[in-house]
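wait is this the right file?? whatever heres the structure
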């Protein structure tokens, strides 16, 4: 009951005069534009050998507009969304129709017409199925994977096809170098020059002004000027029609005359299936254009548009259009925002436009026959010039020179070779450009050394100083992105340059971190094989960290097969820790890590007065000194043993630091009086001294000098950490 009441309230709102009148106005404007556009598209598709079927063709394009407008108006996520058969698919359908007709030299006109209609129906049905499936599988974001220069080049080529098609509508001759002498004859020039002037005027005005009534107003004005010229010259409408200045005459009755079973039996289906490549192009461009237009509507009206729902609606609309022999189409950007501009984003916009197209299909043959060809041809030429201006002139200021070259080459290929060939060349060039541009990107995100990057191991002060002195013997490369033959070879050259750098000592360890590497192809493995040879020659150990299973499998036989040369670790932290341990061991004459004196004596040699304030504690593996989220019990000084500072969140544990003999933990929590942000867990048994806040306060009162020494010791530790962090930040900024 609540749903019914809600629907009644929405319907009542739609029919309020303040909302109804703007909706009907936008719907009438959209309908008029749709009728004029579909007439011009039909004239484009059914031209040449098929010109006698233009009337039927208009019925098919208008039925397609009716089906698309109605279904999308009812099913779109944006109430005022408008969908009609559009220029880009129409240009490709025109190529398909001309190709099919030319390949049927011995066929009757009815057979040619039936074959072309069969191709139109197959295109609409397949396009509808694909678009609907994409919406069902939630693939509305697919458009982001199409190279933008390829789309731009195709649209530029489509602009040229539309200009050529407009010339065919106006003169009956194709636009080519061979026909150029014929096209510049005075009698032929008179046929196409008015259409060109109208197209240029439309382009100039609409690039400068953006009012939604400009387009229909100029179209009606052009029709009025045409009939005014006829009146001034004393030429009758019948005489103008006989001389080819009109679109008709058409047979009386309804324009929509879909093929029945007998008509489809006349079609040459092998020739139709031979056009699957062009049909696939229509589908690809329809999907891309639909999603781009829907996204544009979203930005224009500042409200969310469900792309997957738009795919669903357009898919169903194309299926209905195909069942009625209509042409394929999708959502349009410019007309869809009419309702919002008029203050009434209502479904009545699309429904009204659909009813106007339906009325024209059923009763408009006599009216359509008097539509002037110069206006239709000029409209087609205007659409072509829009594409050419945007993707040839405007693109010069938007794209890089390489991307712009792709656009121009696709345009030339489509004009000189064919649609599929142009798209194929564009995709190939885009891939080459991607490989070239990507190979120039340095896959080394950060180049570091042991002097400015440390593991999360808290080491005694003398070990920190030792690592700072010996740090250049540790070379760390944090990799990023995709590794293939271009980027991997650049990485190899960077490693070679570092090994041969006379200003630095030869590194003993080269760490390659793969944590941000998305993939590695077979050709990149060759570069790592060469890197292994460089390491063997220089007695260098390679350390590879954070390898994914896929990358590890590809490097298993070329690098990882020699444990004397290469070591692997699960993370960069553990890999660098191992390298630091090796550097410390080697610096201490290979004797391993020497035991450190008790930290109390190390901190305050000869100060026996410090001991009374400390609580000595024997710890074993698994003991928790500090628990995350709880108050810190004091400052802990490890005399021996080992512990891990770890952060626990949502069942996962992350190692923050590893601390050993001679290190301090808990000082920040005690000084600030905050709860612990991490836990400290004992890994190896040992001895720990604890200085509580109460004992520190007693020390400050009883022996201020001793307390000052302790504060100085803690300050030195904190300063060392700040220094290490500063070195790392500076290295990352370089």
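ok assuming it is, sequence goes like this
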């Amino acid at each position: 009951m609540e749903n019914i009441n809600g629907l009644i309230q929405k319907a009542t709102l739609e029919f309020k005069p303040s909302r109804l009148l703007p909706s009907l106005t936008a719907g009438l404007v959209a309908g008029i534009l749709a009728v004029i556009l579909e007439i011009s598209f039909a004239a484009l598709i059914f031209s040449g050998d098929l010109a006698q079927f233009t009337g039927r063709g208009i019925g098919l394009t208008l039925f397609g507009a009716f089906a698309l407008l109605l279904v999308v108006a009812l099913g779109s996520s944006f109430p005022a969304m408008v969908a009609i058969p559009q220029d880009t698919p129409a240009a490709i359908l025109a190529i398909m129709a001309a190709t099919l007709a030319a390949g049927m030299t011995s066929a009757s006109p009815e057979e040619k017409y039936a074959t072309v209609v069969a191709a139109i129906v197959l295109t609409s049905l397949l396009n509808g199925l694909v678009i609907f499936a994409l919406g069902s599988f939630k693939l509305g974001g697919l458009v982001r994977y199409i190279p933008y220069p390829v789309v731009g080049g195709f649209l530029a080529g489509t602009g040229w096809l539309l200009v050529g098609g407009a010339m065919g509508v106006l003169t009956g001759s194709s636009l080519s170098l061979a026909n150029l002498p014929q096209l510049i004859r005075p009698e032929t020039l008179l046929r196409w020059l008015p259409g060109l002037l109208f197209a240029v005027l439309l382009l100039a005005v609409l690039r400068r002004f953006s009012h939604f009534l400009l387009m229909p107003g100029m179209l009606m004005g052009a029709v009025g000027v045409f009939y005014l010229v006829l009146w001034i010259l004393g030429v009758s409408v019948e005489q103008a029609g006989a001389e080819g200045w009109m679109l008709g005459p058409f047979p009386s009755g309804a324009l929509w005359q879909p093929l029945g079973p007998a008509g489809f039996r006349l079609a040459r289906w092998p020739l139709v299936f031979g056009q699957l490549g062009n049909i696939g192009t229509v589908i690809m461009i329809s999907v891309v254009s639909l999603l781009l237009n829907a996204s544009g509507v979203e930005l224009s009206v500042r409200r969310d548009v469900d792309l997957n729902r738009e795919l669903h609606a357009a898919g169903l609309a194309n299926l209905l259009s195909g069942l009625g022999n209509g042409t394929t189409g999708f959502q349009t950007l410019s007309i869809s925002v009419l309702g919002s501009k008029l203050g009434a984003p209502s479904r009545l916009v699309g429904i009204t436009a659909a009813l106007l197209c339906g009325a024209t299909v059923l009763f408009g043959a006599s009216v359509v026959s008097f539509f002037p060809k110069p206006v239709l041809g000029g409209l087609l030429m205007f659409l072509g010039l829009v594409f050419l201006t945007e993707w040839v002139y405007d693109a010069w200021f938007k794209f890089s020179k390489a991307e712009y070259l792709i656009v121009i080459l696709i345009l030339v290929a489509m004009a000189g070779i064919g649609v599929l060939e142009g798209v194929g060349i564009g995709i190939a060039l885009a891939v080459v450009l991607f490989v070239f541009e990507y190979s120039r990107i340095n896959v080394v995100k950060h180049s570091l050394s042991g002097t400015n990057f440390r593991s999360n191991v808290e080491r005694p002060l003398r070990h920190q100083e030792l690592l700072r002195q010996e740090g250049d013997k540790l070379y760390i490369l944090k990799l990023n992105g995709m590794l293939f033959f271009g980027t991997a070879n650049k990485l190899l050259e960077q490693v070679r340059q570092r090994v041969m750098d006379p200003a630095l000592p030869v590194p003993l360890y080269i760490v390659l971190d793969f944590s941000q590497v998305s993939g590695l192809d077979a050709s990149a493995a060759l570069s790592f094989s060469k890197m292994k040879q460089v390491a063997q020659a220089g007695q260098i150990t390679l350390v590879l960290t954070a390898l994914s299973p896929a990358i590890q499998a590809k490097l298993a036989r070329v690098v990882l097969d020699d444990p004397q040369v290469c070591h692997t670790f699960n993370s960069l932290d553990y890999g660098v820790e191992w390298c630091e341990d090796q550097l410390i061991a080697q610096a201490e004459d290979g004797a391993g890590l020497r035991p450190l004196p008790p930290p109390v004596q190390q901190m305050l040699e000869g100060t026996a007065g410090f001991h009374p304030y400390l609580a000595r504690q024997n710890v074993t593996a698994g003991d928790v000194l500090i628990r995350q989220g709880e108050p810190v019990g004091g400052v802990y000084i490890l005399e021996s043993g080992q512990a891990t500072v770890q952060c626990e969140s949502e069942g996962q544990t992350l190692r923050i630091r590893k601390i050993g003999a001679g290190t301090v933990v808990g000082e920040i929590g005690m000084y600030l009086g905050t709860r612990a942000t991490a836990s400290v867990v004992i890994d190896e048994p040992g001895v720990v001294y604890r200085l509580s806040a109460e004992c520190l306060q007693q020390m400050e009162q009883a022996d201020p000098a001793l307390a000052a020494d302790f504060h100085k010791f803690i300050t030195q530790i904190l300063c060392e950490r700040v220094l290490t962090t500063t070195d790392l930040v500076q290295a990352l900024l370089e």
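Residues 635 and 666 are 5 Å apart (CA to CA). so i think its the right one actually
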